[in-house]
Design a protein that fits this description.
The protein is an alpha/beta fold and about 220 residues long. It is built from 8 helices and 8 strands; from the N terminus they run ααβαβββααββααβαβ.
């Protein structure tokens, strides 16, 4: 088994951006791993400000309620392993290396379109979802990395709840030039039959954009 340092070097060797914005790569990788995400339930969290703290508080509440709770956050503060937790316990160095090796093998066998590769966030997301499934998590609090529509975490089916924290201008080169365009991208974590829990006092036309998405996919909208 590789050392933790070798594992991290391998993970970080993947590019940040790996081709045209799309869910095709992460879908192919998850399928190669047996689509473990399909056996899990999620609270999916997007937004500009407050995603991390919202994810931590949500995971703590679920754990205190007796659920075996996975937590996926981005970025980390102290250690890469902090990104992948179950009941506040980081994934161990040994498990990180073992799961990374399995994801790398699945990646090696993929046949992606020319110019497409698996990016670091896609790789890490796949690793985490496989880990949570095999560790029998009751629910996973899943923090979006960037945006929503084409973020690797959006490979999941409809979550138990989608949460959108306060939206501001961020990653404009990727997500759009207005808060409304950015909200539209992030709104794609809302899927048919779920519920959107939205932070109050959103700027501009953000509430209307989010409510429109809920209307389109028959999701409930709650502002709190």
């Amino acid at each position: 088994m590789e050392s933790i340092q070798q594992t991290l070097e391998m993970i970080h060797s993947h590019g940040r951006f790996s081709g045209t914005p799309s869910l095709n790569r992460i879908r192919a990788l998850m399928h190669a791993l047996g689509d473990p995400q399909c056996s899990l339930r999620f609270v999916h969290i997007a937004g500009t400000n407050g995603k991390g703290s919202t994810a931590l508080l949500t995971a703590a509440a679920l754990e205190q309620s007796g659920y075996r709770t996975g937590l996926f956050i981005s970025p980390y503060v102290l250690d890469f392993r902090e990104r992948i937790q179950i009941d506040r316990q980081w994934i161990s160095a040994e498990e990180l290396s073992a799961y990374a090796a399995r994801v790398a093998q699945a990646e090696h066998n993929l046949h992606l379109a020319e110019g497409e590769t698996i990016g670091e966030f896609e790789f890490t997301t796949a690793l985490a979802l496989l880990y949570y499934a095999e560790k029998n998590c009751d629910i996973v609090v899943l923090e979006v990395g960037l945006g929503g529509r084409f973020d690797a975490t959006n490979v999941i089916d409809a979550p138990e709840a989608a949460v959108i924290t306060h939206i501001a201008l961020d990653h404009m080169a990727v997500l759009g030039n207005t808060v409304e365009e950015i909200a539209a991208d992030k709104s794609h974590i809302v899927k048919p039959g779920t519920v959107l829990i939205c932070a109050p006092k959103q700027p501009g036309g953000v509430p209307e954009v989010l409510m429109q998405r809920c209307h389109e996919v028959n999701a409930d909208y709650i502002e709190t």
